[in-house]
Design a protein that fits this description.
Length: 581
């Protein structure tokens, strides 16, 4: 599943609080709501109806249902479940139906059965308004045990807690849950809508590209596949990037693919070795064109039971994202922004601030945690300071703001009156707030503060403060990235901020030859609630320029990309694209 979509699924549903019934009903509702035609769910198979669809309008109908036994009550009622919902079945009690009763009473839970009978109204007082099929029940005439179920490793009930490991080990059983069914069906519907929007409304062509390929320089590590020829290997593509650019050279003009990508990046919580992207490329397009396309695409395919998306999405330059949120993927659902307070501390007596400010890139940064004094414990502050020391080799000082500015902080006595007033004004602090302060090189100090901002948000939320509305979808374009960034392991060398095919900003091209680190790019990322869910760029379509970037700036082996460089020489149109996922 696309990582971003799984996040969306998670955020769209509230599994723990709803009853199973409600989730089943919402799964069923979303299936009907999102398509114009109601799909035929029982064609070609051994049932007449699904368990979730029967209503009072079906009274008197003879039906055949297939499903899993979800509950049994006093050998009188049985609740049958399929992908569409739940329905109550009345187990016949009369002698003549003894064999039917035996099947339905003896089959273990989660066995698969087929029942045939009549749709009848539930007796007065027994209707269940929480159940979409709660007005009716099935008076069974015949029953067949299709397959019996052994004792399961966990119960198929959404409210039953189970570990992630167990869920993964028995993925096929986990898929029986209403939540997982909902997620997969939502994904399928959204992909369908996306295809509709791209192909039918905007003339895109769905092209499948190879997965056995050769190495692409730069970017993530690739998986290597042995070939039959000794010493020769294939690489699995990190993305169809080269193929989609070649398709533009081939005149395809508008390409998309629901594409599998492979990256051997080790295990990080937000990374998977294989994942899916909605991959897009267009000729004769600029940055605004790609952004508008994506906004339209998401708006069109957005689940119909959610508030519609408002477009255009806001946009933020990379430099501002770093300075105010300490990251290139800011979570804009809440404030607590990083503030530069260097100027206020130019004459400070606090040693580590003095030290930092005496260096060329030295800064002092702060964030204000509203009501932090009330919600953060001493041990939280200690672990924040330890994190800063262990991971950033930086000092972080807390200032607890109290009435009468009688502050409680290791630095309180060194903070002069006007510095204190300045802090209050710049950070708009109030009583019971906590200010966290650090000092160091701009980028490093911002990244640290960005991490602490999220950490503090988690801590406050764990104590019941609502900072990030779970129902909010805060989309944001991050733009104006630098084309290159210093390599982490060797900051003297440069690497691409996006990938080596990204075009420089037209007004910065001259800097490529003199100060490449200052060149801005035509790269844009789409961020949702603090997660990067897409990224793309306008590409270099000039072979010479591409050669220069690969060879001179990035010091890559150009031979590996000679086919692409050659293609760019044969009338490549200007082009750009993006991938979501
Ligand atoms: N291929 C790029 C990626 O996977 C996306 C793009 O530039 O279109 O990140």
């Amino acid at each position: 599943m696309f990582c971003w979509l799984s996040r969306l699924c998670g955020e769209l549903s509230t599994p723990t609080r709803r009853t199973t019934q409600l989730i089943w009903s919402s799964a069923a509702r979303s299936m009907v709501l999102s398509s114009q035609r109601i799909p035929e769910l029982s064609s070609f198979v051994a049932r007449t109806n699904t368990c979730g669809e029967l209503r009072s309008s079906h009274l008197g109908q003879e039906v055949t249902l297939c499903g899993w036994i979800q509950f049994r009550r006093q050998n009188i009622f049985l609740v049958l479940r399929d992908f569409h919902g739940l329905v109550q079945v009345v187990i016949p009690q009369d002698e003549s139906a003894a064999s039917v009763k035996k099947i339905l009473c003896e089959a273990p839970m989660e066995s698969v059965v087929q029942v045939s009978g009549t749709v009848i109204s539930r007796p007065p007082g027994q209707k269940n308004p929480k159940m979409p099929t709660g007005e009716i029940e099935i008076k069974v005439k015949t029953a067949k045990l299709l397959n019996s179920c052994k004792k399961l490793p966990f119960e198929i009930k959404d409210f039953m807690k189970k570990t992630e490991t167990l869920r993964l080990q028995y993925r096929y059983l986990d898929l029986r849950s209403a939540q997982m069914q909902y997620n997969l069906r939502l994904r399928s519907q959204m992909v369908m809508k996306m295809r509709e929007y791209l192909c039918n409304l905007h003339g895109f062509v769905d092209v499948e590209t190879p997965t056995l390929f050769k190495r692409t320089p730069g970017g993530a590590k690739e998986f290597v596949i042995p070939s039959r020829e000794p010493g020769k290997f294939y690489s699995l593509p990190q993305s169809p990037q080269q193929f989609k650019q070649l398709l533009m050279v081939g005149g395809l003009d508008r390409y998309f693919q629901v594409a599998r990508c492979y990256r051997d990046e080790g295990s990080r919580p937000d990374r998977q070795p294989e994942f899916t992207q909605i991959d897009i490329e267009m000729s004769f397009v600029d940055q605004t064109g790609v952004q508008s396309l994506i906004e339209g695409l998401l708006q069109y395919s957005w689940p119909s039971d959610k508030d519609p998306l408002v477009v255009p999405f806001p946009s933020m330059p990379f430099a501002e994202a770093l300075a105010s949120y300490g990251t290139d993927k800011p979570d804009t659902r809440f404030g607590m922004k990083i503030v530069d307070i260097s100027d206020m501390f130019r004459n400070t007596e606090v040693g580590f601030l003095q030290d930092a400010l005496s260096k060329p890139q030295g800064t002092v940064k702060a964030i204000c945690i509203r009501k932090g004094a009330k919600y953060l414990k001493r041990k939280d502050i200690e672990s924040i300071r330890k994190f800063a020391a262990d991971h950033f080799n930086e000092e972080v000082l807390p200032i607890f703001l109290k009435t009468n500015e009688n502050w409680n902080s290791p630095v309180a006595k060194f903070i002069m009156e006007e510095q204190g007033l300045g802090l209050v004004k710049l950070l708009e602090t109030q009583e019971e707030d906590v200010v966290l302060l650090t000092a160091g090189e701009h980028k490093k100090a911002c990244s640290l503060m960005g991490k602490l901002r999220l950490e503090c948000a988690d801590l406050l939320e764990a104590r019941g403060v609502v900072l990030r509305d779970p129902a909010l979808f805060s989309f944001l374009w991050v733009v104006d990235f630098p084309l290159f960034l210093p390599k982490e392991e060797n900051p003297q060398e440069l690497e691409s901020a996006h990938h080596p095919f990204t075009a420089p900003h037209p007004s910065d091209i001259h800097l490529l030859y003199t100060e490449p680190h200052k060149v801005r790019s035509q790269h844009y990322d789409l961020v949702l609630n603090g997660n990067e869910i897409g990224g793309g760029s306008i590409r270099i379509h000039n072979s010479e320029l591409q050669h220069y970037v690969l060879d001179t700036v990035l010091k890559e082996d150009v031979k590996l990309l000679s086919h692409l460089l050659q293609a760019l020489d044969y009338g490549a149109p200007p082009h750009g694209g993006i991938a979501l996922g």
